[in-house]
Specification:
Layout lengths: L3 E5 L6 H12 L2 E4 H14 L7 H9 L3 E6 L2 E6 L2 E2 L7 H11 L2 H12 L7 E5 L2 H5 L5 E6 L2 H14 L6 H17 L12 E4 L5 H15 L1
Parallel strand pairs: 1-6, 1-7, 2-6, 7-8
Antiparallel strand pairs: 3-4, 4-5
Helix pairs in contact: 1-9, 2-4, 3-5, 4-8, 7-8
The structure holds cytidine-5'-monophosphate.
The site of cytidine-5'-monophosphate has 15 residues, from helix 2, helix 4 and helix 8.
Length: 221
């Protein structure tokens, strides 16, 4: 199997930032699996489908017309030919993604698409079930957590940097609701793989977490 590092954990734990840093340092590919669930949720909204129409939503997931493009401005995520990099990051899209992610047909529809990101160069895969379901054979599995308040604070700062105003108690409530939904679904719930390294980042800087994962990677690859 090609080299794979999986980074799973609850929303806002810093998985995305750390995955990007680690992939860049190692020269590996990256899979932001949450973006596929967000893209499906956005396509479902565009199509005006009922959020409970499971068979129709599964069909949307299976036929998702998505391209990841990298140019001088960074990564662009294109859905049906339109740049939706910003649109999929909205908080309500996270909640919608979490609802459709509980549907077994949607998860099955996205499974092979995720596995196809595996690459000879190596892959850093970020999500909820990377180590348990999508890449159970991964050589290094991390389960990254942080307290709910710290995760909400980080999300708040990210939004502030983008000039978006948000209310901290609302963010805490949103994250808690999404974690609860993700951890309690019957298919591929949010949980650490048995062989995952647990990493609580509440008191750690981005640099410290990046270095910790790189140290673990150096001991394996
Ligand atoms: O990681 P992100 O917050 O972008 O993910 C959005 C939602 O997609 C999560 O709350 C979760 O419900 C779902 N998801 C998932 N499995 C993954 C990645 C994301 O169920 N591997």
């Amino acid at each position: 199997m090609h080299p794979v590092i999986t980074i799973d954990g609850p929303s806002g734990a810093g998985k995305g930032t750390i995955s990007q840093n680690v992939a860049r340092q190692l020269g590996w590919e990256i899979l932001d699996s949450g973006s596929l669930y967000r893209l499906t949720a956005l396509a479902v909204s565009q199509d005006g489908l009922d959020m409970t129409a499971e068979a129709a939503i599964e069909a949307v997931a299976r036929g998702l017309d998505v391209h990841f493009e990298t140019d001088s401005g960074g990564l662009k995520i294109m859905l049906r030919g339109e740049d939706v990099s910003e649109a999929i990051r909205a908080e309500d899209m996270g909640m919608k993604a979490s609802s459709i992610a509980a549907m077994p047909g949607v998860r099955a529809a996205l499974l092979e698409r995720q596995r196809a990101f595996s690459s000879v160069a190596g892959l850093v895969a970020d999500g909820r079930d990377m180590g348990t379901t999508v890449f159970p054979e991964a050589q290094l599995k991390i389960f990254m957590t942080a307290s709910c308040e710290e995760r909400a604070k980080r999300r708040h700062n990210q939004l502030k940097e983008k000039g978006i105003s948000a209310n901290l108690p609302d963010l805490v409530a949103d994250l808690a609701a999404r974690d609860e939904q993700d951890a309690n679904r019957s298919v591929s719930p949010l949980r650490p793989a048995d062989d995952a390294v647990m990493l609580d980042t509440t008191e750690m800087s981005i640099e410290q977490v990046t270095n910790k994962v790189l140290d673990l990677a150096k001991s394996i690859f």
